[in-house]
Amino acid sequence: MEGSKGFGGIGENGSSSEGRPPNPLAAGCRQCYTIDNAPVSCKKTLVRHQSLVKTRTSDISVEPELTVQNHTGDFTPIVRSGAWADIGFRSSMEDVYTCIDNFLGDCGLNNVVDGPNAFYAVFDGHGGKHAADFACYHLPKFIVEDEDFPTEIERVVASAFLQTDTAFAEACSLDAALASGTTALAALVIGRLLVVANAGDCRAVLCRRGKAIEMSRDHKPICNKERKRIEASGGQVSDGYLNGILNVARALGDWHLEGMKGTDGGPLSAEPELMTTQLTEEDEFLIIGCDGIWDVFRSQNAVDFARRRLQEHNDPVMCSKDLVDEALKRKSGDNLAAVVVCFRSEAPPNLVAPRARVQRSFSAEGLRELQSFLNSLAN
């Protein structure tokens, strides 16, 4: 099974806080690599997206309808993560993920924030895996190397998506064989703050006391808002596909596709939508996954399934594998990648519905009326 071998050296199955996959920051946070793999100083050579270099956090468009209301109360999350992926029924594997439970610590930036600091992401490549691998490696580096991180998280994360897209365009200009695209979803836990940035149709779902809270929105061309943006940018939606080619409205890469992107923008956007919330004691875990998972799981269904599994074994690695295996049983036709992030050390509690104080029953008259109604249906 290809899924058990890891993907591009970035994510390996069975990852967790005790044995997580290699992450792009562990080898030395102050270095990055040019196209010919020569190490250089990231602080001086990162490709800055000019429109966002000096932008304030308040200038980044964060959809108001995508903002989860904060809850009061003191709570310190204890992050534990696991991930799993599988090639599924496809001939090649283009899904990539990364799990970094100690995001700042791996860079030597300890004592910057109180509480946990973690980074998780999934990338669903199309037209090849190069864009997914590139984004998985460079996106977290652009975030952590920004001098405004973590004080201006939303601006930094939005900027990092666009910088990654621009950097990949430059890489493709030097090597045409890299031409491809990828959707991207990143989740950061900084103290009690959960920030999710999404560009594409990957999805993040938070379990809040058993209830599914969607932390992202699928960017499909047929969505009204995306369709309006596409048409305003000179594109069109044909049979549900952007310009008749892509079934996503936002993605990184795809610079080789005519009419999709340009220096002045285009119908295919790399700008993420962001959603934030303050974690509370009611927040149990987060599921992020590529669309192969969500093709066969509704958000609440996935939360219910994962919650039962965590109650059984309390292992985010096994839970991720359970989600992937169940998606295979449900005949998902895509590559599969799932990450489960737990926010507490104990398993989710059993939820017992309170008994009604008043016992209700049918009266004899009510039963007769019901029987008469059923008889009329039979006739």
From TrEMBL:
Span of domain PPM-type phosphatase: 80-343
The catalytic activity of this protein is classed by the Enzyme Commission as 3.1.3.16
Pfam families the record matches: PP2C
Q: Which GO terms describe its cellular component?
A: cytoplasm; nucleus
Instruction: List the biased-composition ranges (Gly residues).
Output: 1-12
The UniProt keyword set, sorted, is:
Hydrolase, Magnesium, Manganese, Metal-binding, Protein phosphatase
SUPFAM superfamilies with a match to the protein in the record:
PP2C-like
Q: From what superkingdom does this record's organism come? A: Eukaryota
Cofactors (names): Mg(2+); Mn(2+)
- Does Metal-binding count among this protein's keywords? yes
Q: Which InterPro entries match?
A: PP2C (IPR015655), PP2C_BS (IPR000222), PPM-type-like_dom_sf (IPR036457), PPM-type_phosphatase-like_dom (IPR001932)
Q: Which reaction does it catalyse?
A: O-phospho-L-seryl-[protein] + H2O = L-seryl-[protein] + phosphate; O-phospho-L-threonyl-[protein] + H2O = L-threonyl-[protein] + phosphate
Per the record, which residues fall in region Disordered? Answer: 1-22
Q: Name one GO molecular function term.
A: metal ion binding
Give the family, as the similarity comment puts it: Belongs to the PP2C family.
Name listed for the protein in its UniProt record? protein-serine/threonine phosphatase
* Upper classification of the organism: Eukaryota, Viridiplantae, Streptophyta, Embryophyta, Tracheophyta
